[in-house]
Amino acid sequence: MPTDRMWDAGPAEVALSVLAAWKVPDGEVKRLTERAAVTAGSYGASYEQLGAVWGIIRHGAREKWPDAVSRPAFVTAGRSTVALFGGTAELVRSSFGGWSWTGRGADGASGAAADGAPYAAAEEVAAHAG
How many structural domains are present in the chain? Predict the structure, then answer.
């Protein structure tokens, strides 16, 4: 309808128009919340934790974001070394799947991952070690 007659529509048509306007942001919010849940899950959050922040039970979170938390699998612990700009870092994968690092720079300074802050992926721990 033209702007000067937009409120001439019946209440149902006006309400439906408002509802239609909310469709796009609703879809975007769903996409962003799923992305946040998957990111939290990749860093070790459980379905119980996801549900708690969303105000639902663990089972509800699992149904809402079925791929957010991967089931723990047996992970082989391992080590690898990265050499970069004259320094070296040892990347360590624990048996629970998290990564940490220790290293020595070309200037002799040493460093290590902060205690209690395992990294989720080898690429991430390598970036922090660098």
Answer: 2
In a domain, 72, yes or no: no
The 87-93 sheet, strands edge to edge: 78-84, 87-93, 99-104, 110-112
**Is residue 100 over pLDDT 90?**
no
Q: Is residue 55 part of a domain?
A: yes
Strands in 1-130 per DSSP E: 78-84, 87-93, 99-104, 110-112
Span 21-39, average pLDDT? 93
pTM above 0.70, yes or no: no
- What are residue 58's DSSP bridge partners? none
- Supply the range of the domain harboring residue 15: 3-64
